[in-house]
Write a structure and sequence with these properties.
This protein is mainly alpha-helical. It is built from 23 helices and four strands. The protein has helices at residues 30-33, 35-38, 54-63, 69-81, 83-111, 115-124, 128-159, 163-172, 175-179, 182-210, 214-218, 233-243, 249-257, 268-278, 282-309, 313-324, 328-363, 369-385, 392-417, 439-456, 462-466, 468-486, 539-544, and strands at 512-514, 521-523, 527-530, 535-538. The chain has a two-stranded antiparallel ribbon. A two-stranded antiparallel ribbon has the order 3-4. It is globular, with a radius of gyration of 24 Å. The chain starts with 29 loop residues before the first helix and ends in a 35-residue tail after the last helix.
Length: 579
């Protein structure tokens, strides 16, 4: 099968074609039409494109969690709340992130959809998920700025580059990689993995040999902010809120998991393990990194002071000095720079996908994913220049209230609503079959995040402030199925999808239809029947149509535009692409 998203003409359009009935054939801009760069940014990822093996996809996804923000976050939590409360916070947040991530990871891998498309069909509706695109985009540029700040600190320490200039360098360095899409990202993650593993493990080996009693001292550490010894519920709640800011990381994992090959009898064990490891499994490594970063910062505290101990480069240098001496600085700088490049190519890539989803629905235009790389990086660079690193705890604590309300609502729909029949068993992401807003997920997220933010700012007292993220998660988990039950699930589908009858799984269907607008063949899950065009229309052309008036939601198509197709169960052999 040829590349099904390349226009049949291969030409770049000189202007955007007029929309509406009888409109001429749509041709996408050159960058938007090139799927080697576009990576199906607004679409279902077809089976013909999912050429990577489960282990390759998992390895690429896990390569993106090399970031050192975990070091800074863990150190900040333990320095503020002490070891006992900090450890409990890190573990509790990891458990919540892991459990909510399991159903999301499996849905993205099974249906070939990114987080935005899953959100549409998991209780939010076509326009309801627009807000979550902004939430996700803000996650990518907030953490790009945080990771970029850490890289700039390393370059300043290593070669004396002013941090302001370092911010610009860290921003520009990722553009050529992210521009080329999944293929380039997979290579970068694979090539840099050995350096990252050595750099991650070596400091702890050095300390185990040279300072074996440091862990015992660390376990009795009460922090630098005068925290009480032992466990504190207030400190636990506040610390968990900071750690839960990482919950939206599952979206970045999903951006890779959507390229997982079809699950077959031959690969199901490897497939299940790969999805679990690369989906929610990232947080196991993440929690270990938070605790490890706090430990390194504690050991370096007396030598470098609190401010520099919270910057991952300084503790790294101090840990390596006993063995590497004067080479500790360049070795630590190399590790930090490699780590930050690995994560920031993912942040920039995921941000470009999210902005594409957002603006395609708002403007009905799609110039291509790559242009939104620059928007995301401009915002991130601005945050770096504003020194957001100094307000780390407060910023992440606030963000986590919104992030967890969104993720918990999606998880509730996948685990509860779909299992008991309150929502369709499959993920419907196409505009032609969705209501604009579904109150089940969107309403649950809106109510939960609003209440938790008010709690975060102290409106309901000290304990509610500390546990605001728990309030957000709990309300979303309860309200999503409750609203779906009260509305009898009628806001999930605006009309039935003719290719999703009983027992037919959308991810199993590999038959293709030619879009009546762009005249390109797409696999059936990416196609809708359009009464305006009197034929099939691909999901992206449908999204970009400004003048159809959503007629398909009010009246059926004129004739059998799409016939229900038999399930095609031809296994696609997972191979690693050449080059």
């Amino acid at each position: 099968m040829t590349d099904i998203a390349t226009p049949t003409t291969g030409e770049a359009p000189r202007q955007e074609p007029q929309e509406g009935p009888g409109a001429p054939r749509r041709s996408y801009a050159k960058l938007a039409a090139d799927e080697s760069r576009e990576d199906y940014s607004l679409r279902y990822a077809p089976h013909s494109f999912r050429r990577w093996s489960p282990s390759t996809v998992a390895g690429t996804a896990l390569g993106g969690i090399a970031y050192l923000a975990d070091f800074a976050i863990g150190a900040s939590i333990v320095f503020t709340y002490g070891f006992t409360s900090g450890l409990a916070s890190i573990l509790a947040a990891a458990a919540i992130i892991f459990l909510t991530g399991i159903p999301i990871a499996r849905a993205c891998a099974k249906y070939g959809l990114d987080m935005d498309l899953v959100t549409r069909g998991a209780g939010f509706g076509y326009f309801g998920s627009t807000l979550t695109s902004l939430i996700y985009a803000s996650f990518t540029f907030i953490f790009f700025a945080l990771e970029g700040s850490i890289m700039a600190q390393a370059m300043h320490q290593a070669v004396g580059l002013p941090v302001e200039a370092g911010y610009l360098v860290t921003t520009l360095i990722v553009i050529p990689i992210v521009f080329r899409g999944m293929g380039a990202l997979a290579k970068v993650q694979a090539w840099t993995q050995p350096v990252w593993i050595i750099g991650m493990v070596l400091p702890f080996v050095v300390l185990a040999v040279e300072a074996p009693g440091s862990w015992g001292a660390f376990s009795s550490f009460t922090g630098t902010e005068g925290a009480e010894p032992g466990f504190s519920w207030i400190a636990f709640g506040l610390g968990t809120g900071v750690a839960l800011s990482l919950i939206a990381q599952i979206g970045e994992q999903a951006d890779y998991l959507r390229f997982m090959p079809a699950r077959t009898e031959a690969n199901k064990r490897r497939w299940n393990l790969a999805v679990l490891a690369a989906g929610p499994g990232w947080v196991v490594i993440g929690a270990a990194k938070q605790l490890g970063g706090a430990f390194l910062a504690f050991v370096a505290l007396e030598a470098v002071g609190k401010t520099h101990a919270l910057e991952p480069i300084a503790p790294q240098i101090e840990a390596l000095k006993p063995w590497l001496g004067s080479f500790a600085l360049p070795a630590a700088a190399l590790f930090v720079i490699v780590s930050q490049v690995k994560i920031n190519v993912t942040n920039a890539y995921s941000g470009s996908l999210s902005w594409s989803n957002f603006f395609s629905r708002i403007t009905h235009k799609h110039p291509g994913r790559v242009w939104y790389i620059f928007l995301n990086l401009t915002i991130a660079l601005t945050l770096m220049e504003m020194n957001m690193f100094a307000a780390l705890n407060k910023l992440l604590g606030f963000y986590s209230n919104v992030g967890i309300a969104w993720i918990a609502a999606v998880a509730a729909d996948l685990v509860i609503n779909k299992r008991i029949g309150l929502s369709p068993r499959y993920i419907e992401f196409k505009r032609a079959y969705l209501h604009a807003v579904n109150p089940a997920g969107f309403g649950a997220m809106l109510i939960a995040s609003t209440v938790s933010i008010l709690a975060f700012f102290g409106l309901f007292g000290r304990y509610a402030e500390a546990f605001s993220t728990f309030i957000a998660a709990g309300l979303s988990l309860v309200l999503c199925p409750l609203i779906a039950w009260l509305t009898k699930g009628k806001y999930y589908l605006a009309r039935p999808n003719p290719v999703n009858g009983p027992g037919v799984e959308i991810a199993d269907i590999t038959a293709t239809h030619t879009c009546a607008v762009c005249e390109t063949a797409y696999e059936l899950p990416d196609i809708a029947d359009c009464p305006v065009r009197s034929g099939p229309i691909c999901s992206l052309c449908c999204s970009l149509d400004e003048e159809c008036g959503d007629v398909c939601r009010r009246e059926p198509a004129a004739g059998p535009v799409l016939m229900p197709m038999p399930v095609v169960r031809t296994p696609v052999a997972p191979v690693t692409p050449a080059g």
